[in-house]
Design goal:
three-stranded antiparallel beta sheet, Collagenase (Catalytic Domain), five-stranded mixed beta sheet, binds zinc ion, 389 residues
């Protein structure tokens, strides 16, 4: 049986808060995990002869700059690889396993399919990634939403579209999903003329007034709305989510057929810090300037979105380099991971989508510049110089 892409089900299942202290002693990998050697990582890129410069993982000899540091060792017991034994997915494994590269049409897809096509764009010429806001993003965050869409489309090289917002009514410890009549976006067209209200499973703490929504009930609603030409659909919300009662929170979850997922940006707000004991205890720090708050939330949201969509596209967690496809066991591990793909995963996405590597880096460079992501801007600039010189 082909291995399913690992979804984000565990990504947010953390028991720790942002300020996890790094241990002073060495943290072992989880039993059974074997860290790849530098040679294994190089081989995972999948070239038998010389590696083309676009995917060359070498250190930039002239300036001694390391574009792709080796997979970092765990520094905390809750780090992903101290908890989960990943097998890794080489480029060759990806090509063999990826359902989007199969000559058989994917189950549940009703759009046009060209079995002889090379890339996902050739095979599913109408295919789009959809992102749908669930609940209020507010004035502050509507810009965040459109910037996320722009980043995702540059990063993936696929058409990314937003869908009309799904209204939620949040109040009195309850969350209602408001379904407007004749919603024509989905496959499940409803003929009802009435607005319907579905109460979502949630939990509420009367003291702190914090409310969390259960991710399962959300997902069930979302599945009905997937457009026919969707490759996948991501619901994004500013509400805090949980999976089961023992969770502090979850960042999100993907649905059974791997085409629908929902994620929360709530815990990516740098002004908030979270209790490691209770899901409902949250502290707000008002000292962070608004611009910085927006920049950090956007950066964290960008990383989350592309990581999760790459999973939906068949790319597993990375164990070869420091990479945005590394698994993360808690928020601080998530936050310190890079925004870029290592050569193994860049080659997977390149093969799946068929973009021009240099052209994509140029667009990313402009995006990072526009949004004040200084470190990433410098990284791409150096990478472009390395590739093009
Ligand atoms: Zn993941
Ligand atoms: Zn990688």
């Amino acid at each position: 049986m082909p291995k399913q892409p690992r979804t984000s089900a565990n990504k947010g299942k953390v028991k720790q808060a942002q300020d996890v202290q790094e241990a002073e002693y060495k943290i072992p990998y989880v039993s059974g995990f074997k860290a790849p050697s530098a040679r294994d990582s190089r081989n995972a890129i999948g070239f038998t002869s010389e590696i083309p410069v676009d995917f060359d993982p070498s250190t930039n000899v002239g300036v001694g700059f390391e574009f792709f540091p080796h997979l970092p060792e765990p520094t905390h017991i809750d780090d992903w690889l101290a908890q989960y034994c990943e097998e890794g997915q080489t480029f060759k494994q990806f090509v063999k396993e990826c359902p989007w590269l199969s000559s058989r049409k994917r189950k549940y897809m009703s759009q046009e399919f060209q079995p002889s096509g090379q890339t996902i764009k050739d095979r599913y010429p109408d295919g789009k990634v959809y992102i749908v806001p669930i609940g209020d993003f507010g004035e502050r965050d509507s810009e965040l939403f459109s910037s996320l869409i722009e980043y995702t489309s540059i990063f993936l090289g696929l058409p990314v579209k937003s869908l009309p917002k799904i209204d939620l009514h949040v109040g009195e410890g309850k969350v209602l999903w408001i379904e407007e009549p004749n919603n024509k976006t989905g496959t499940n067209r409803r003929s009802s003329q009435r607005t319907k209200h579905h109460q979502l499973t949630s939990r509420f703490n009367a003291e702190t007034k914090h409310i969390q929504v259960c991710v399962d009930s959300n997902l069930m609603q979302l599945r009905n709305l997937i457009p026919e030409d969707a490759i996948c659909m991501i619901g994004l919300t500013m509400l805090d989510l949980y999976g089961d009662d023992s969770d502090l929170f979850v960042a999100g979850m993907a649905a059974g057929n791997q085409r629908v997922a929902i994620f929360s940006l709530y815990r990516y707000d740098p002004c908030l810090s979270f209790s490691t004991e209770h899901w409902f205890q949250i502290q707000e720090d008002h000292d962070i300037p608004q611009k910085e708050r927006q920049r950090v939330t956007l950066q964290r949201g960008c990383k989350l979105l592309v990581h999760e969509i790459c999973h939906l596209l068949g790319i597993d967690h990375c164990i070869y380099y420091d990479c945005c496809m590394n698994g993360s066991g808690h928020l601080s591990e998530d936050f310190r991971q890079p925004m870029h793909l290592c050569p193994v995963d860049l080659r997977k996405l390149y093969t799946l989508v068929g973009f021009n590597v240099v052209g994509r880096y140029r667009l990313l460079h402009q995006y990072y510049k526009n949004h004040g992501f200084k470190e990433e801007e410098k990284w791409v600039q150096k990478r472009l110089k390395f590739i093009c010189s």
